[in-house]
Amino acid sequence: MADDKRGRDKQAHDEERRQRERELETELRRREEPEPSIEATELGELEDELETLPFPTTAADVVEAVGDREIVSPEGTYRLAELLPETDAETFDSPAAVSVQVQRPTVAAAMKRIIEASAELQDADFGGSRRDAYRKTLEALAAIDADDDEGLAAITDWIVEQIDEKGKLPGSRAVRREAAKFCRSNGYEVRVDEWLGI
Fold first, then answer.
1. In sequence order, what are the beta bridge partners of 5?
2. Do residues 77 and 20 share a domain?
């Protein structure tokens, strides 16, 4: 590579991408979660495209700018618009935050449905802790049977039905309880010391 400004910029840019990939892998190991279904290099390329947006930005702005961008995972190819809610209520602080949101496409699509359904609610408290608990429950369901997303779909449907019928978000314990009930009724073992063991 030539030792000029363009070559040095490319080297710096590549190093920044590798650093983001290392940080993502470290975060996943620290949280003792399985590897993301989307490769770190694919997420790094997505982050590079998102660099043109001013951050913090809304999910609606991300979808508008790069919603047609395809993301390849072992389960298939997804458009970014299928994984992010088209709402101004969801914001991202950085391109890496978008990557974290979409790294597990089935969970991201489920969260999109829930966020969009809750957007219609007046004074809905879908803050950080409840959102994190929902996501953790959906991730646990996805991990129980990685080949079949039946549990993920069933609990997402149940949450959306609760929003429609009762006009409010179900509590995180209620979501965990419903997920545990689904698992046990379908022959999946849920130990008491696990997240769904409620």
1. none
2. yes
Comparing 15-19, 55-59, 130-134, 158-162, the range with the smallest average pLDDT is 15-19
Q: Are residues 139 and 46 in the same domain?
A: no
Which tokens in the block code for residue 134?
């929902």
How far from the centroid of its chain's Cα atoms is residue 131's Cα?
11
Total domain count for the chain?
Answer: 2
- Residue type (1 letter), 68: D
CA distance 137 to 160: 15
- Which of 62, 86, 103 is the C-terminal boundary of a domain? 103
Q: How confident is the model at residue 31 (pLDDT cuts 50, 70, 90)?
A: very low
Domain enclosing residue 117, as ranges: 104-198
* Boundary-marking domain end, from 73, 103, 133: 103
118 and 185 in a common domain:
yes
